[in-house]
Design brief:
This protein is α/β, with parallel strands linked by helices and about 475 residues long. Helices cover about 45% and strands about 15% of the residues. It contains 20 helices and 14 strands. The chain has helices spanning about 10-20, 35-40, 50-60, 70-75, 95-110, 125-135, 155-160, 175-190, 215-245, 250-255, 275-290, 295-305, 310-320, 345-355, 370-375, 385-390, 410-415, 430-435, 455-460, 470-475, and strands at about 1-5, 25-30, 65, 80, 110-115, 140-145, 165-170, 205-210, 325-330, 360-365, 380, 395, 420-425, 440. The strands form 3 sheets. A 6-stranded parallel β-sheet has the order 3-2-1-4-5-6, with helices on both faces. A 6-stranded parallel β-sheet has the order 11-10-9-12-13-14. Strands 7-8 form a two-stranded parallel ribbon. α5 (about 95-110) runs parallel beside α6. Mean pLDDT is about 95; it is low at about 455-475. The structure holds nicotinamide-adenine-dinucleotide (NAD). Nicotinamide-adenine-dinucleotide (NAD) binds near residues 11 and 83.
Length: about 475
């Protein structure tokens, strides 16, 4: 089947590359001319592990082409819409890019087309799309509109696309379900050459879930809102731990051992960011409001998240006493590791607030600095973590990149003015940091100093991995 993918962003590019990787002929369109020209010239417009190799390979094999949306619409039997749905000022999802694609389909497509919403959209967008197409199409176009929400995560998008837990499709005709099943068959049966693993044989089976369109649309918003809720929940538990001197990592570990809760998304920090959670929570609140449902639970989730940067700043202020004139090293700008994405990243609000308070900021991120430059023009960008830490009064960890775990402490000690690490992601081992002579502040865990490593933190750490009850840990 000939497949078109509209929009070559984080989702569209992964979708196009992976669909070609599993054997389809794919035409991907992009209306940002600079991005399109890069792609046509073999240059990646974004960083995503494995994706560059996938795209190079499938282009060489002649299975992936880039061009205009008009060309893509004429070309494909199935059209995946992967354009952005950013938030409007009132929290609604901006569907103008989706509508723009629908207009081109109505004008240019003929015969039958399978139209697939992969962008995250509010419930009933599929119904609106059908209505729009029936009103505007003049070429006798026949079509099915299908919801196929995408669950990939930036940083692991190739792996997530090729080895998903579930593929959800919302359809209103058996033919549409059959066609989508055909498209995804190599993924359902895991019969393709995997660019990530040398042996995928033992991967767990995925669920191919078929629903009505509205339910599929809701699954995506409900899933992201639920995950955001888990993060805000543990962030509040972290505040409580800060207040009473408990250790949130132990609380989260204990909670996560309950299979009804699970350990995922119980990592406290400076809040969720990225292109999905903040806008999807907002959009879900608006969808509920417009449907007459009071989902104020999600308003709290959002409110808690919005207060995270200020809560974290307070920790920095407490340590530095006066922020004005202080040199602060920021380690990590991306909203999470293994991506260059900085949209709605907490780093932006944090750095802006530090600059407003008169701090000098030197930042390092392995991938996101180019993209951060327009949002944060007034800071110094450095080529490694030690350069960022030159003369610093505090090293502040904002993104949990693996390389920060492998820090050369002696080199860092020589670089900084004051040995202070403020870890917004709880990524470091408190005992190790203090052993290396640094004062260590994290989120929801006791502050530790080299002279006074807190016995509780040290003892609990030494028992990591050993199956002991909380009472025996406390008794030590
Ligand atoms: N980024 C994620 O991790 C992720 C995960 C799951 C779902 N989603 C959803 O997928 C959608 C896309 O997200 P993204 O992160 O890829 O966004 P993005 O902004 O990175 O990419 C969207 C691309 O579409 C292009 N575009 C817009 N209108 C176009 C048109 N008419 N023709 C061709 N190209 C057009 C834009 O120029 C842009 O490059 C959103 O709805 C998002 O919520 C994102």
């Amino acid at each position: 089947m000939k497949i078109s993918v509209i929009g070559a962003g984080y989702v569209g590019l992964a979708t196009a590359g992976c669909l070609a990787q599993i054997g389809h002929d794919v035409f991907c369109s992009e209306n940002d001319v600079e991005k399109l020209s890069k792609l046509q010239n073999g240059v990646m417009p974004l960083f995503e592990p494995y994706l560059e190799g996938v795209i190079k390979g499938v282009r060489k094999a002649g299975r992936l082409h880039f061009g205009s949306t008009e060309e893509a619409i004429v070309w494909g039997d199935a059209i995946f819409i992967c354009v952005g749905t950013p938030p409007l000022a009132n929290g609604d999802a901006d569907l103008s890019a989706i509508e723009g694609v629908a207009r081109v389909i109505a004008k240019r497509a003929t015969g039958y087309r399978l139209i697939i919403e992969k962008s995250t959209v509010p419930v009933q967008t599929g119904a609106q799309l059908r209505k729009h197409l029936s009103v505007h199409s003049t070429n006798g176009l026949r079509y099915d509109v299908v919801s196929n929400p995408e669950f990939l995560r930036e940083g692991t998008s190739v792996e997530d696309f090729l080895h998903p837990d579930r593929i959800v499709i919302g359809v209103d005709s058996p033919r549409a379900a059959e066609l989508l099943r055909e498209i995804y068959e190599p993924i359902v049966t895991q019969t393709f050459t995997c660019p990530v693993h040398s042996n995928c044989a033992k991967r767990k089976e995925l669920v191919f879930l078929v629903t009505d369109t509205g339910s599929a649309e809701l699954i995506k918003h409900a899933s992201n809102s639920f995950l955001a809720m888990k993060i805000s929940f543990i962030n509040m538990v972290a505040n409580l731990c800060d207040a009473v001197g408990a250790d949130v990592s132990k609380v989260a570990q204990g909670m996560g051992l309950d299979p009804r809760i699970g350990p995922a998304f119980l990592n406290p920090g400076i809040g969720f960011g990225g292109f999905c959670f903040p806008k999807d929570v907002q959009a879900f609140i608006r969808i509920a409001e417009k449907s007459g449902c009071d989902f104020s639970l999600l308003k709290e989730v959002e409110k808690i998240n919005q207060s995270r940067v200020e809560h974290f700043l307070e920790k920095i202020r407490k340590e530095l006493w006066v922020v004005r004139g202080k040199k602060i090293a920021i380690w990590g700008l991306a909203f999470k590791p293994n991506t260059d994405a900085i949209r709605f990243a907490p780093s932006i609000a944090l750095v802006k607030a530090l600059l407003d308070e008169g701090a000098q900021v030197r930042a390092y991120d392995p991938e996101a600095m180019e993209k951060a430059k327009s949002a944060l023009p007034n800071i110094t960008y450095c080529s490694n973590p030690y350069e960022a830490a030159e003369g610093a009064d505090a090293v502040v960890i904002v993104t949990e990149w693996a390389e920060f775990r492998r820090v050369d402490w002696d080199r860092l000690r020589l670089a900084v003015e004051r040995p202070l690490v403020v870890d917004g992601r709880n990524m470091l081992d408190a005992a190790e940091v203090t052993r290396r002579g640094f004062h260590y502040v994290s989120v929801g865990r006791p502050v530790v100093t080299p002279s006074q490593p807190p016995s509780a933190a040290k003892d609990v750490h030494s028992l990591d991995g050993v199956q002991v009850g909380a009472a025996s840990v406390l008794a030590k």
